């Protein structure tokens, strides 16, 4: 995205966190539209295919041409990971976008993110057991486990039973909800909107797009720091000039004045271009999300009742959050909560392994039961009463 100083920023679109639209939209199709932060629309299929194409070009330019020049595009098997909670239409839509981006259908493999992460966890266990003195909770043959993938948009959970040679079978169909890291971001942004008003936030997105992007990035940093420090407050960078201009424009005086008049005045303080957040408030913003995560885990355990599960693997972008880890440990004190090394890369590295081991899951539990009628409904006018069942 170009800076405003070039004068060309208006010619560009900025789609932020659009992946989850394939879950929240009721009807997913190639005619579906996506709206960027300024409210401008583009066909969803164009946005997704362009994003995938950019990833392909980045990989090819930075790695293939420099390090593996003998490899050609048709030689590559591509693995595209998707949330487990997506429906069949969303999966088909993703495949179509990948094909539009230049990936041949026969060279494309779709992998569920928690399954890829589960494969990584098992592989990582072997590496630690063989080459290091320490060992994470190893899952033996015949044992059961949950893989909880807490990503940006979703929480995906799979329940597996480990078989021989690192193969697994599903204990129930994959499940989850849209209560990942972006839900925490949404909690914070709703708080800011409550303080300054909807018009200020809309103005920030439309008139100060770069400042809005930096605001989101600062929020990511804040989110990862919460719980790791013992200090009573934590600082967050904010686009103070843009917020002051917009607050004045919409009758709020200044951002500092808006904060001092809000219900959050005892928990927030402005210091130069920093927003000082009281740790009590920061942790409170996590609670609604951690409650949903715990609820999803409880739902899965209910569905596999009768199968003993002692170990939870927790991976994903939010897996290292001490608040989320504590919430899970406090709710399931009798379980082993295991976070492998590099949990944020578990899906990525697992996808590479999945490309070599696509039959990792030997059997699945279908989400739906399918059947067809084999007997007609009894009709007193057409059928013999002796044939009624």
Q: Could you give a quick summary of the protein structure above?
A:
The chain is built from twelve helices and 13 strands. The chain is α/β, with parallel strands linked by helices and 389 residues long. Residues 1-5 and 129-133 have low confidence and may be disordered.
Rg estimate, integer Å: 25 Å
Shape: globular
How widely separated are the two ends? 68 Å
Spatially, the strands of the biggest sheet line up as 12-11-5-6-7-13
What does the secondary structure layout of this molecule look like, with pairings?
Layout: H1 21-24, E1 33-35, E2 41-43, H2 44-67, E3 78-82, H3 88-100, E4 108-112, H4 113-131, E5 144-150, E6 155-162, E7 168-177, H5 181-196, H6 198-207, H7 209-225, E8 233-237, H8 240-249, H9 255-260, E9 268-271, E10 274-278, H10 279-303, E11 311-315, H11 322-331, E12 336-338, H12 346-356, E13 361-363
Helix pairs in contact: 2-3, 4-12, 5-6, 5-10, 6-7, 6-8, 10-11
Provide an overview of this structure.
The protein has 389 residues and is α/β, with parallel strands linked by helices. It has twelve helices and 13 strands. The protein has helices at 21-24, 44-67, 88-100, 113-131, 181-196, 198-207, 209-225, 240-249, 255-260, 279-303, 322-331, 346-356, and strands at 33-35, 41-43, 78-82, 108-112, 144-150, 155-162, 168-177, 233-237, 268-271, 274-278, 311-315, 336-338, 361-363. A six-stranded mixed sheet has the order 12-11-5-6-7-13, sandwiched between helices. Strands 8-10-9 form a three-stranded antiparallel sheet. Strands 1-2 form a two-stranded antiparallel ribbon. The longest helix is centred in the last third of the chain and has 25 residues, at 279-303. The model is unreliable at 1-5 and 129-133 (pLDDT under 50).
